[in-house]
Specification:
alpha+beta; Uridine Diphospho-n-acetylenolpyruvylglucosamine Reductase, domain 2; Cytochrome p450; four-stranded mixed beta sheet; 18 helices; 11 strands; 10% strand; disordered N terminus; binds protoporphyrin IX containing FE; oxidoreductase activity, acting on paired donors, with incorporation or reduction of molecular oxygen; Cytochrome P450 family 27 subfamily A member 1
């Protein structure tokens, strides 16, 4: 039987074709297993609202095999049932609520400051004096630096001119692990000792986990030193890892198993969303001009945005919502309802049916989003909502998933993207570099551009 990776394989264009051919629900087979694809907001809602206390996404066997071989504890993606629930209760602290995310504003602004310096260097070094040939690559390093700083409270040098060796090795190993996981998914197990992919897959993970362990060990030493200095009566509770360890939410061993999974989830997601947002803003100068007006109205040039400013920037939020509607980074997700039979679309399905949630095609449904392929952030603004939009379906676009198993990092992802976008638009007019042309999306675990997105960052006056 073919193994499933994090996301059940169903490329966006297949979703579109299959929905056109079969309607909003169809089945397909992966080996002997039946997948029930749901591709309309009401059906999605029916599946998700019937999930139990411990929702199951899919089996993640391949990731678990690595953890088992290395004697690591499972993280939020790999754990199930009650132990997942307990882990999520711990990890949700200081992460899930908007007020939790607000705590990281200064840290994120520090990383944004450094990104702006790095961007300026890159522009200055380009022939045109304002050109960045592959913005997704730069956002990748921004996102990695940001999530590491939040999780481990450590800067890892991604935005320096010369990136430290162990950070480079980490980045390489993430690519390596994902590439080789494809072979591991589709090739039979007996080929593992014969072909190099299995060793490479495990090595990729090992580097990822030892990178995390090193940062956790450093934190433990710091905590120990603080306790020695200040005594056990006054532990200093600051960032995420510090809080989790000192408040007893997680043991060091649990942190070692979980934090690398958070790290993996927090990089491609935000970096690709930022790339798509700037791509569309550069193709829609009037929307960019309106956003610029909103941004400098709240945060004039030279000022750094604060958390409270963001509440007054509805267009900024709408730009990100619209970006995620068009390009849900996770274009397909899944749920297995393990505890009961469920009825969906008038059919009764047995326990343990695997439902594939076709988010990409759902969020481009013209009956919910008129002119669905157009980038129109205004559709999310309350004052512009026509009668059609007032009836917008709550499951029309759910890029962060749903319910207790929904995205853990949603609030920090939103904050991180809002803070960076504010600064970029405040300082630059962004245009598409001529070599870029039309960009479409392809699914590589997450939804990414099919080619490099080159942009020009033209300095604004004043
Ligand atoms: C644009 C940014 C992001 C998007 C669109 C996104 C989207 C998603 C989606 C769709 C899921 C599956 C939810 C479900 O099954 O209902 C998910 C899960 C998850 N995300 Fe995110 N994510 C983003 C950023 C982040 C960041 C920055 C972190 C870092 C902490 C993160 C951590 C996680 C974790 C740990 C899970 C698994 C939760 C669980 O199974 O309990 N994500 N994300």
């Amino acid at each position: 039987m073919a193994k499933k990776s994090f996301l059940v394989y169903s490329p966006p264009r297949n979703q579109v074709l299959n929905k056109a051919k079969y309607g909003p629900m169809w089945i397909n087979y992966i080996g002997p297993q039946i997948h029930v694809n749901v591709a309309s907001a009401p059906l999605l809602e029916q599946v998700m609202r019937q999930e139990g206390k411990y929702p199951v996404r899919n089996d993640m066997d391949l990731w678990k095999e690595h953890r088992d071989l290395q004697g690591l504890t499972y993280g939020p993606f790999t754990t199930e049932g009650e132990s997942w629930y307990r882990l999520r209760q711990a990890l949700n602290q200081r992460m899930l609520k908007p007020a939790d995310a607000a705590l990281y504003t200064n840290a994120l602004n520090e990383v944004v400051d450094d990104f702006m310096v790095r961007l300026n260097q890159l522009r200055a070094e380009s022939t045109l004096g304002d050109h960045v040939p592959d913005i997704a690559h730069q956002f990748y390093f921004f996102a990695l630096e940001a999530i590491c700083y939040i999780l481990f409270e450590k800067r890892i040098g991604c935005l320096e001119r010369s990136i430290p060796q162990d950070t480079k090795a980490f980045v390489r190993s993430v690519g390596f692990m994902f590439q080789n996981s494809l072979y591991a998914t589709f090739l039979p197990k007996w080929t593992r000792p014969l072909l190099p992919y299995w060793r490479r897959y495990l090595d990729g993970w090992n580097t990822i986990f030892s990178f995390g362990k090193k940062l956790i060990d450093q934190k433990l030493e710091e905590i120990e030193a603080q306790l020695q200095a200040g005594g056990p009566e006054e532990p200093r509770i600051s960032g995420y890892l510090h809080f989790l360890l000192t408040s007893g939410q997680l043991s060091p061993r649990e942190a070692e198993g979980s934090l690398p999974e958070l790290l993996m989830a927090g990089v491609d997601t935000t970096s690709n969303t930022l790339t798509w947002a700037l791509y569309h803003l550069s193709k829609n100068p009037e929307i960019q001009a309106a956003l610029h007006e909103e941004v400098v109205g709240m945060v004039p040039a030279g000022r750094v945005p604060q958390y409270k400013d963001l509440a007054h920037m509805p267009l900024l939020k709408a730009v990100l919502k619209e970006t995620l509607r068009l390009y849900p980074v996770v274009p397909v997700n899944s749920r297995v309802i393990t505890d009961k039979e469920i009825e969906v679309g008038g059919f009764l399905f047995p326990k343990n049916t695997q439902f594939v949630l076709c988010h990409y095609v759902v969020s481009r449904d013209p009956s919910i989003f008129p002119e669905p392929d157009r980038f129109q952030p205004q559709r999310w603004l309350r004052k512009n909502q026509t009668d059609a939009l007032k009836g917008q379906h709550p499951f029309g676009s759910v890029p962060f998933g749903y319910g207790v198993r929904g995205c853990l990092g949603r609030r920090i992802a939103e904050l991180e993207m809002q803070l960076l976008l504010t600064r970029l638009i405040q300082q630059y007019e962004v245009t598409l570099a001529p070599e870029t042309g039309e960009v479409t999306s392809v699914a590589r675990i997450v939804l990414v551009p099919n080619k490099k997105v080159g942009l020009r960052f033209l300095q604004r006056q004043g």
